[in-house]
Write a structure and sequence with these properties.
- This protein is α/β, with parallel strands linked by helices and 319 residues long.
- 35% of the residues lie in helices and 16% in strands.
- It has helices spanning 33-42, 53-56, 59-70, 95-98, 107-125, 141-149, 215-227, 246-258, 284-301, 310-318; strands at 6-13, 47-51, 75-80, 131-134, 154-155, 187-190, 193-197, 203-204, 209-211, 236-238, 263-269, 306-307.
Length: 319
């Protein structure tokens, strides 16, 4: 086991402002990652860039990521957006609009897409892919079996306490994954029941999420929602920026450390480092606030954690 808690930085590395559905995806955000990388290195932290198809095809991103790998200052992993990742396979009448989950495709198509993305990333960056996060957080047992088959060691798709089943991919299917009762700590997965620990080689590193309110408050809130005919999961806090929320992020990290967790995991999308690259950070002013929050958070975390990539944490976890 690692002796000092790890700080794991996971970046969903994907096209610009994908919250706006479009067939013409740009990758200008690749040119904004250098500043973030420099901030990470200032504090001795190593991001894991979970990379999707369009970014793997971006010369600017490839050049950036190769340099990070060559200097051992970060890691590239796999992030798969099923609706536009080759080989293409129409699942709905407008996949770009609905953005179906990989778990909604036939198993043979799932395997083909994972194989294609893995080959592309490994050929492009010259390293074995070991870390992964599912597109739109949608993960299941079949997906886990396939990652294990292709030699992945880490998945970080689980978001404890969060139920994505109300968020549709294919409008005719059942929605996303329900992680409400999943562990909130790292565990080797039972590939036949990913909510449980097992003896596989696939380590689940769930996102650092914490309940916003205590058990009694949540019970009352859900009871009240039930009377009103609403069914909602408990409110959660994440270790992720959303604009001027340093104190909230610190609170989540502090909770994890106080509970004796051996890591805290941060996430953001690569496009959120670029003005107008996301709905949250729309302009230069909001980006500057983001970096003030990150500098303050990283300075605090550098006193309590050590920076690791997902792969490094896996190796440390086995000690």
């Amino acid at each position: 086991m690692v002796q000092k808690p790890a700080f794991l930085i996971s970046i969903d590395t994907e096209g610009d402002n994908l919250w706006v559905n479009t067939k013409d995806i740009s990758t200008q955000n690749a040119n904004f990652l250098g500043r973030f990388q420099q901030l990470c290195e200032k504090y001795g932290f190593k991001p894991t860039y979970l990379t999707n198809y369009e970014m793997a095809m971006s010369p600017d991103y490839v050049s950036f990521a190769k340099d990070v790998i060559a200097r051992n200052q970060g890691e590239v992993g796999m992030h798969l957006h099923a609706w536009n990742s080759p080989p293409l396979h129409a699942l709905t009448d407008d996949d770009d609009r609905y953005q179906p989950y990989l778990i909604e495709y036939p198993v043979d198509v799932m395997r083909q897409k994972i194989a294609a993305m893995t080959d592309l990333l490994e050929e492009t960056f010259g390293v074995k892919m070991v870390s992964h996060r599912a597109g739109r957080w949608a993960f299941n047992e079949q997906y886990a079996h396939l990652l294990n088959e292709f030699g992945y060691l880490v998945d970080c798709s689980v978001t404890p306490y969060v139920d994505w089943s109300g968020v549709k991919g294919n409008p005719e299917a059942n929605g996303g994954s329900n992680y409400r009762y999943f562990p909130d700590h790292a565990y080797f997965m039972d590939l036949n029941d990913i909510s449980k620990a097992g003896d596989s080689n696939l380590l689940q590193i769930p996102m650092s999420t914490r309940l916003k309110y205590g058990t009694l408050h949540n019970s009352f809130k859900q009871f009240y929602d039930g009377i009103r005919g609403k069914k909602r999961p408990p409110s959660t806090r994440w270790l992720r920026p959303k604009g001027n929320n340093f104190e909230e992020m610190k609170h989540v990290a502090q909770q994890c450390l106080n509970e004796g967790k051996n890591y805290v995991e941060f996430m953001l999308h690569s496009s959120e480092f670029m003005p107008s690259g996301s709905p949250t950070f729309k302009d230069e002013t909001s980006i500057e606030q983001l970096y003030r929050d990150l500098d303050e958070l990283f300075a605090w975390l550098s006193q309590h954690t050590q920076g690791m990539t997902m792969g490094e944490f896996y190796r440390g976890y086995l000690r």
